[in-house]
Amino acid sequence: MELRKINTRDAYAQWEYTTTLPADENGLTNPYTGIAYDEYIEKALPTLISYEHPVDMPDWFVPETYYYLWDGDCLVGEFRIRHHLTETLKKGAGHIGYSIRKDKRGKGYGTAGLELTVQIAKEIVPEEEIYLRVNKDNIPSQKVMLNNGAYIIGEDMEHYFFRIKK
Question: How many angstroms separate the Cα of 36 from the Cα of each of 41, 43, 55?
Answer without folding.
Answer: 9, 11, 25
